Amino acid sequence: MVKDYYYLLGLPRGAPLQEIKKAYRQLAAQYHPDKVAGLQSEAQREATAKMMELNEAIAVFSDPDRRAEYDELVELIPERKPKPPQELKPPPAASPPAEPPASPTTVGDAAAERPPAVPAAPAPETARSAPPRATEPPRAAPPAPPPGMLAEEYARKRQWLLQKLPLNWNTLSIRGWQWAIRGGNWRRSILVVHRHLETLSLLSFRSLQTALEGLMEQRKFSLRPTMVFALVSYERLMDAKPVQGHLQGLVAEKRGTLKNVHAAVVLYDGQRVALVGQPLDDPEVRRVVQVLLGR
Q1: What is the domain-level CATH number for residue 36?
Q2: Pair 269, 235: CB distance under 8 Å
Q3: Number of structural domains found in the chain
Q4: What global pTM score does this model have?
């Protein structure tokens, strides 16, 4: 059964990716585990299920190939009018216990227990009240960057630094990749491509695998040693061990007629960077690896 991710995000079909990411971030902030930690168990289970569906949706919409296939399938089911999402409200706070009533007292007893009033000393005529000190208004905290901005900014900086290396870089437009550059000389060829994923999981890995294998297949008749680097930035990681195993298998095999096409994947989650694969033992390739790893 085809899920209507557009209805889930509260958007009409064919909405631009920018609006899809905006709706995803708003809903993810609402259903995040930290936001529902104080709710009842039933509400937490509902939020967890909703968050899993949101992650599935953004994984599909962030991949151009998968979104094109999905848009064809979703037309088979009738479109429902989007409705605004319902907020999860915390349970009502318990009212404070009522104070016990005071014991009744007579007017005479109250007057007897009340201490005599002491007249306040008059202020000296020479004393002047100090002017009130101006209090500085509290400074608002700077807005947090939207999810994915730091990771994509890291990738753009890698591209800029790579193009400073003297390797005769050319900018390419390859479907399914945010950017791609190719460089090298008569001894070797180097291709670097970048893709950003909201969630790196087994589901999104299949598309990544197809795209990377396609790049290697296009260079199978190359006479020069060819190194393909895939810089993959992401925000969340799911199925960590299976994904790691599949990545190792993807980059282990050499391709091409002469078995001279190699691949490696550089992973960046906004904080850490990791290299998966064994690049060519070449001085220029090692310099590219150092730039991609931020060294």
Answers
A1: 1.10.287.110
A2: yes
A3: 2
A4: 0.53
